[in-house]
TrEMBL record:
The name this protein goes by in its record: Lytic transglycosylase
Residues of the Transglycosylase SLT domain: 157-255
PANTHER family: MEMBRANE-BOUND LYTIC MUREIN TRANSGLYCOSYLASE C, SOLUBLE LYTIC MUREIN TRANSGLYCOSYLASE-RELATED
Signal sequence range: 1-22
Keywords associated with the record: Signal
Organism: Methylomonas methanica
4Fe-4S found in the keyword field: no
Family annotation (Pfam families): SLT
InterPro entries: Lysozyme-like_dom_sf, TPR-like_helical_dom_sf, Transglycosylase_SLT_dom_1
Similarity annotation: Belongs to the transglycosylase Slt family.
Keyword Signal: yes
Length: 284
């Protein structure tokens, strides 16, 4: 019996900054995208095998409330070759996952060891082996080469349409990967729809009448991103933050809002776009 579970459930609520409703978060396209991309890094599918990058991506999923994200962090720490063994830390993440309803977590839990105390996010966990330019580099082209034909077609469509809207194709593609992993049928619990996860209000604002048509969805998103770029004087970090949390939240906080999900979203988009190494990420 794992006595720390009730305490870890309380920690989970603090860690996530939201109410814990596991099924809802598991259905969210952003969570699914982070899990799929983390698995590619864990197994070396397209991107080179990189356990630290896998942990970072799984942490992004966990921050959005995913028990699977917590479980996979623990799994990597418990089983990944080349990482220093940290069974107590692995157990802590696995116990967190189990407390949120993950049955798979118990397969990797090592009852011979206790549970480490989690610090509230993954930054301390990855700090000794993770850098934006090295350990966590994400080769977007290599990753896309291993995706289904339809996703590759959508990626090419983004590159084709970007010049018309005067936006950076790599940045838009990074948004699409973070939002839905290029899934044109994706629907979030908040009814964001399509490849670029446009909510109905944004669809109406930018004239998108067929949100599940990839081209129409991408065109609307590019118009929005172009508008945000002008609004925030070309600061791509603020554009990404506004795409995630809304331009009003960026205005209220005079920068990237202090929401864990938004901060990790910006970091992920900048990494995917190849922009993370060009400037230091500074969050309010």
């Amino acid at each position: 019996m794992l006595k720390p579970f009730p305490r870890l459930l309380l920690l989970a609520t603090a860690f996530l900054g939201v109410s814990v409703h596991a099924a809802q978060f598991l259905e969210a396209p952003r969570v699914q995208a982070a899990l799929e991309q983390g698995l590619a890094a864990e197994r070396g599918k397209g991107v080179g095998r990189n356990p630290w990058l896998a942990i970072r991506l799984y942490c992004d999923a966990a921050t959005m409330g995913s028990p699977e994200g917590f479980m996979r962090i623990g799994r990597v720490l418990a089983t990944s070759p080349g990482l220093p063994r940290k069974p107590e830390l692995a157990n802590a993440y696995l116990a967190m996952a189990a407390s949120l309803g993950s049955e798979d977590a118990l397969r990797y839990y090592d009852a011979r060891h206790g549970n480490a105390e989690l610090q509230g996010d993954c930054d301390a966990l990855t700090g000794t082996g993770y850098t934006e330019s090295g350990e966590a580099a994400f080769n977007m082209a290599a990753y896309l080469s291993k995706q289904p034909i339809e996703q590759q077609r959508i990626a090419r469509l983004i590159h084709k349409l970007a010049p018309k809207y005067q936006v950076d194709a790599s940045f838009v593609l990074a948004i699409a990967l973070a939002e839905s992993n290029l899934n044109p049928a994706a629907v979030s619990p908040k009814n964001a729809q399509g490849v670029m996860q446009l909510i109905p209000a944004t669809q109406e604002r930018f004239g998108v009448r067929q949100p599940f048509d990839p081209e129409r969805n991408i065109m609307g998103a590019m118009a929005y991103i172009r508008w945000l770029e002008r609004r925030f004087a070309g600061d791509w970090r603020l554009v990404a933050a506004a795409y995630n949390a809304g331009e009003g939240a960026v205005d209220r906080h005079a920068g990237i809002p202090p929401y864990a999900e938004t901060q990790q979203y910006v970091r992920r988009v900048m990494r995917f776009a190849g922009m993370a190494a060009k400037e230091t990420m500074r969050f309010n």
